[in-house]
Structure formats: C-alpha cells, structure tokens
Write a structure and sequence with these properties.
Blueprint: H1 11-15, E1 26-27, E2 30-31, E3 34-38, H2 42-54, E4 58-62, H3 65-74, E5 79-83, H4 91-99, E6 109-114, H5 118-127, E7 131-135, H6 139-170, H7 181-198, E8 202-209, H8 212-219, H9 221-237, E9 244-249, E10 252-258, H10 262-278, E11 296-303, H11 311-327, E12 333-335
Parallel strand pairs: 3-4, 3-5, 5-6, 6-7, 11-12
Antiparallel strand pairs: 1-2, 8-10, 8-11, 9-10
Helix pairs in contact: 3-4, 8-9
This protein binds 3'-deoxy-guanosine-5'-triphosphate and magnesium ion (3 copies).
C-alpha cells in the first residue's frame, strides 16, 4: 500500500505499519509525511492538496467527516488539516476522534478556519488542536506550519519510542533477556491477587542450577554466563505464552504458571529438568572437556494452599521445596508438602 519508502521511518510509522504503512520521504523541505486534508470545498481542497504534494507530502482528501474517520481507520496518518465546517459532522468531533486514539501516537491537527472565525479556532485549540491556519492561507505559511508540526511529531515519536525502550529495559535482565526480579515480584503479586479473586490456581517454580559455582571455577565466568543465557532460552521455550519467566537471582530462575494446578506444574518442571540434563554445552576451546553437561533442581508451590495468604509466603514455600530437592540429591523437583 505504501509507495516509495526512501528516507527514515519514524517510530510511529513503524508501529502503525500494519495499518497500511506510511510513506515518508526526506523532501526538499525536510520531513514529509502522509497528510489527511478534511475539507468539503473542492476548490480549496484541491488547491491546498497540490501545494502540499509539491512539497513532497502524500495527501489524502476527505470531503466530509465520515470520509475522514474512514481514512483514519484505514491508514497511518501523520498529520490532519481540518476544516471545522463540514456537511455531515462538527469538525470538533473529527478532532476528538483523532485525539482520542492514543494507539496512533501523536497525530497533530491543524485547524483550517476563516480569518474572521475566531470561535472555531478557539474551540479547536481548546479541544486539542495543535495549530490553526486562517483561510485564505498564504502558501508559504501553510507549508511552514505543516513542517513545524511534523518536526514536533518527529521529536514526539522519538520520545515515545525511547520511553518504550526504557520501560522494556527496566523490566529486563540484561544477561539472559528474561524478565528481572522487580518485574517478577510485581507480576507474582498480581497473579496471586487474581488467583484469590477468581479462585483460579497459580503455581510457582524456582529453578536453581546445580553446582554452578564449579562450572564457573572450571570453565570461567564468561562460559558460565553463556550457559545461563542458554538455560534461560531452554526454560522459556518449555513454557506457554501466559507463563512469566524471570531471572530471580544469580543462577536462579523463577516461573509463574497462571491457572495451573500442582500436577500440571510438576509436568512443566519435569520437562525443564529433562531439557537441561540432555543439553550439551560446548566448552571454551582452551578447556580439555569435550562437552559440558548440567542439571538443575526445582522447587514448586501452588496457591491456594494451606498456610499461604501472601505472594511472599508462596515464594517461601517454593524456596523450601527447592532446598528439599537439593538435599535429596539435586537434578530433581520437589513440591511443597512432598514427603522427604
Ligand atoms: P547448588 O547446587 O547448591 O546450587 O550449588 P551452586 O554452586 O550452584 O550454588 P552456589 O550458591 O554455591 O553458587 C552459585 C554460583 O552461581 C556462584 C556464582 O558465581 C554463580 N553465578 C551467579 N550469578 C552468575 C552470573 O551472572 N554469571 C555466572 N557466570 N555465574 C553466576
Ligand atoms: Mg467547510
Ligand atoms: Mg543459587
Ligand atoms: Mg545453584
């Protein structure tokens, strides 16, 4: 659907690519974009569209509010030029439709109004319009105002993308790419609350690599790091989408299994143990070993269960079960309450 994709793609057009993509070319005037011109007067619409197109913009024309809403639904629009007097709708309603869709990101709206029509400009600006152009417009001014708004949009898009990236980083463990402990603790509280409200079961696994200190001591820390990353992938790929998997501490991973009974959780844990014990890791070239093998131990707890009224208590039970598994010889799982 989109044509020439030269030049940059802004974060917002990358996000909205699924809804028809976006045409962006670095033109003579700087940023160019896909504009929606909402104007019922054919002569005015065509005149302005031609000026904008000459400046490198792609221009869609809507003759009334209904067409405008249709275009907004079908296309990724970067900026709207909006006549407030439309045959079928109040321009303010089109404006609200543009601004009430946060998933579109920042879509600037420039109100077009007769020079004498102060009321619709004021209403427009108060309702969320970003700028206005008094009719009849000066060609240069129209282009300059569009360019200024697109510059702001570009900055805004970059900010939104940077914020999303920071947010992702703040919940991610840098070594393994799994969620970090902060995220996990918050999700555990959420899932615990949900489980309490809806009487759904929730299970929790704590996975600890066996004798991992020895792996580091023998093959070096960088190799240990690589093993941790690979194990994280193994565990992740043993889980379903709604499951939450995090690096809980050094060589410990934790998993929330929403809507999962203890018996199903045992199956998941057994699958993870099997995946770890059958995996071979290629040691560093300097090491004499041909391959490195590893095992893990897993502690399981489920809610609802006796003596558990908080997420922390559930975590405590899983932790105790993990130590039972270690004491019983490692490379195995234990659920809270299992006989020794
Ligand atoms: P156990 O079977 O009792 O769990 O023995 P262990 O050696 O795994 O347990 P211990 O708690 O004594 O040691 C944990 C080791 O995990 C020591 C530490 O160096 C290693 N470790 C923790 N975080 C990292 C990491 O980010 N990278 C690497 N390479 N090693 C780590
Ligand atoms: Mg009109
Ligand atoms: Mg440990
Ligand atoms: Mg360990």
């Amino acid at each position: 659907m989109s044509s020439a994709g030269r030049g940059y793609t802004s974060p917002s057009s990358a996000r909205s690519a699924g809804r028809g993509g976006s045409t962006r070319v670095i033109g003579s005037s700087g940023l160019t974009a896909r504009l929606l011109l909402v104007e019922d007067s054919v002569t005015q619409a065509e005149w302005l569209a031609e000026i904008l197109a000459r400046d490198g913009h792609q221009v869609l024309i809507a003759r009334d509010g209904g067409q405008a809403l249709q275009h907004l639904r079908d296309q990724a629009i970067d900026l709207v030029l909006l006549d407030m007097m439309l045959p079928d709708m109040d321009g303010l309603d089109v404006l609200r439709a543009v601004k009430d869709a946060p998933e579109r990101g920042f879509v600037p709206v420039i109100v077009l109004s007769a020079r004498s029509d102060v009321r619709s400009r004021v209403d427009g600006l108060r309702t969320g319009a970003d700028d206005y152009l008094p009719k009849p417009f000066d060609e240069e001014e129209a282009l300059a105002r569009v360019a200024a708004m697109l510059r702001i949009k570009h900055l805004q898009d970059e900010l939104t993308a940077a914020k999303a990236e920071l947010l992702a980083l703040s919940v991610t463990d840098a070594l393994t790419g799994l969620h970090n402990r902060g995220y996990f603790d918050a999700r555990l509280r959420d899932e615990f609350g949900r489980s309490e409200r809806y009487s759904d079961p929730v299970s929790l696994l704590i996975i600890d690599l066996d004798h991992f200190k020895a792996v580091n001591d023998r093959f070096g820390h960088p190799f240990g790091d690589r093993v941790l990353r690979e194990v994280a992938q193994l565990v992740r790929s043993s889980l379903r989408d709604p499951d939450v998997c995090a690096r809980y501490g050094g060589e410990e991973l934790a998993v929330i299994l929403p809507k999962t009974e203890l018996e199903q959780a045992r199956h998941v844990a057994e699958r993870i143990l099997q995946a770890v014990r059958t995996r071979t890791f290629e040691p560093p070239a300097s090491a004499s070993a041909a391959e490195v093998r590893l095992t893990a131990s897993i502690g399981i707890a489920q809610f609802p269960s006796e003596g558990v009224s908080t997420a922390e208590a559930l975590l405590g039970q899983a932790d105790e079960a993990l130590y039972d598994a270690k004491r019983a010889g490692r490379d195995r799982l234990r659920a809270h309450g299992d006989p020794p």
